[in-house]
Amino acid sequence: MFNDIGPLELVTLIVLAVLVFGPDKLPKVIQDVTRTIRKIREFSESAKQDIRQELGPEFKDFEFEDLNPKTFIRKQLDNDDLGLKEIRNGFDLKKEMAEVTDAVHGRDPESSSSSSSSGSSGGSVDMTKKPENPRDERPPYDADAT
């Protein structure tokens, strides 16, 4: 519950509690806090049991931790019934990015893949090459658009 509190922070909290409540009232406050936490836990467990009973016998192995999206996704990724590992392994990000780059620059994907497979370009873009359309040419002026 308090995994992220270090020893120095714990000592600081204890000193603050002694200063705020005093050494005489501190044990009573600690008992009240633990009693309250215990009641909250009991209430939570009874609510979980009520929900499980209302859902019926088909949900008897239902875990409330599965409602957390991260836990649900992690559990589903471990379960390979969906075939996600094949999809993940079949997706080549470098190849996809090279195809997108070729499409943006208007190059033929077959010619760039053959040159990148030879190792000369390695999927990089030649920045020294001038664009095919010179920037001096302006698009036609449209008076209606302005």
From TrEMBL:
UniProt keyword list: Cell membrane, Membrane, Protein transport, Translocation, Transmembrane, Transmembrane helix, Transport
Gene Ontology molecular function terms on file: protein transmembrane transporter activity
A Gene Ontology cellular-component term: TAT protein transport complex
InterPro entries to which the protein is assigned, alphabetical: TatA/B/E, TatB
Biased composition (Basic and acidic residues): 100-110, 127-146
Region ranges (Disordered): 100-146
Membrane-topology annotation of the record: Single-pass membrane protein
Location of the protein in the cell: Cell membrane; Membrane
Stated family: Belongs to the TatB family.
Subunit annotation: The Tat system comprises two distinct complexes: a TatABC complex, containing multiple copies of TatA, TatB and TatC subunits, and a separate TatA complex, containing only TatA subunits. Substrates initially bind to the TatABC complex, which probably triggers association of the separate TatA complex to form the active translocon.
Entry function: Part of the twin-arginine translocation (Tat) system that transports large folded proteins containing a characteristic twin-arginine motif in their signal peptide across membranes. Together with TatC, TatB is part of a receptor directly interacting with Tat signal peptides. TatB may form an oligomeric binding site that transiently accommodates folded Tat precursor proteins before their translocation.
Protein name: Sec-independent protein translocase protein TatB
Record organism: Streptomyces curacoi
The encoding gene: tatB
